[in-house]
Amino acid sequence: MKRRVPRTVEPIVVTHCGAGSTRAVRDAAGRAGRAGMAALRRGGSALDAVLAATVVLEDDPRTNAGTGSRMRLDGSIQMDAAVMDSRLRAGAVAAISNVRNPVLVARKVMETPHMMLAGEWATRFAHANGFPPYDPATDHARARLERTKDDLARKEVPPWARAWLRERGTDTVGAVARDGKCRFAAASSTGGVSYMLPGRVGDSPIMGAGLYAGPEGAVTVTGVGEEIWRLLLSKSVYDRLTDVGAQAACDVGLGLFPESVPTGIIAVGKDGVGEACNRDMAWWTNARSRGSAKAARP
Ligand code: GLY
Q1: CA Rg value for the chain
Q2: Is the dihedral of CA 288, 239, 106, 28 positive or negative?
Q3: Who contacts 69 (Cβ-Cβ below 8 Å, separation ≥6)?
Q4: Spans of the chain, pLDDT less than 70
Q5: How far is the CA of 195 from the centre of ligand 1 (A)?
Q6: Tens-digit pLDDT profile for residues 177-213
Q7: Active site includes 63?
Q8: DSSP secondary structure string, 132-158?
Q9: Ligand 1, atom nearest to 225 Cα
Q10: Can you give the pTM of this predicted structure?
Q11: pLDDT score recorded for residue 3
Q12: What is the C-alpha separation between 11 and 45, in angstroms, rounded?
């Protein structure tokens, strides 16, 4: 009897260093993407790939995730991260502190009956599960907090709602991947934005807002959390992947935001990858061309 050989598709990894990130950190996006590809070559799944990629980005002190995360106005660091795959399995942590790689804790949450753990209890969960205490503060983050405080002291910052709209390099990191079996995964991780109260949670750990994955593809986004969350941007892009293709879905998603709101999107679907950002954004992919719904589908 002839055995059916499963059809495979081109594995793809896409990474980004956040809306507003410049060429100066493009090497980080590349190293992260190659770490994701290496995970796939070792036989790992799309989920393994986005984890490997996001850990590299979190460990780079130049990005606003993991080591190097922004400080809240009280000088504390609270981070958000999430992962999701095409089986709709998901795990997230919100306002977690004192860990090195929030995205790995989010992966651990995925193994529990819950989808998200928050605050002090997320940190306790991490430490109880073998993630050692770790201080992600850097001198750069401290200096940035001082600048933020100066802005506030000079009253250069308008009321809170308007302050979120000012560009301050909201450099969340993220990755999406498709493995050879056409399974998808998305990850996001962030230290948040400037002018941030302790306890604030942004879009990054929220399924449908900061990221989304399903059988049709994976999306992760960067920008001003409150604005992204309002529009459930990642789910909105995901829902268009099949009809218009990955690139057009990202373009339509970006078009939902005025130019004044820094926003970036990366996606992978069955037709390939998409990327759109209204600022500079350091990003990387191994895919040679953008997705188009008209392209051959696996
Ligand atoms: N997109 C990151 C945040 O708003 O926290």
Answers
A1: 18
A2: positive
A3: 77, 79, 136, 141, 190, 191, 192
A4: 1-6, 152, 154-170, 294-298
A5: 11
A6: 999 999 999 999 999 887 778 899 999 999 999 999 9
A7: no
A8: -------HHHHHHHHHHHHHHHTT-S-
A9: 4
A10: 0.92
A11: 62
A12: 10
